[in-house]
Design a protein that fits this description.
- By secondary structure, the protein is mainly α.
- Helices cover 67% and strands 0% of the residues.
- It contains three helices and no strands.
- The N and C termini lie far apart (31 Å).
Length: 45
Amino acid sequence: MTGGQAVLDRLVDGLAPRQALIVRLRFGLDGHAPHTARQIAEKCG
């Protein structure tokens, strides 16, 4: 993990759980491929 990744993780962790999930899904964080808005809506309702 790079220093930048650690900072990004701390920032995302500071969000509300639902917001953090959406950001992680949208931008492909945590090693996942980025999701479209439609895919996120299907997962998160």
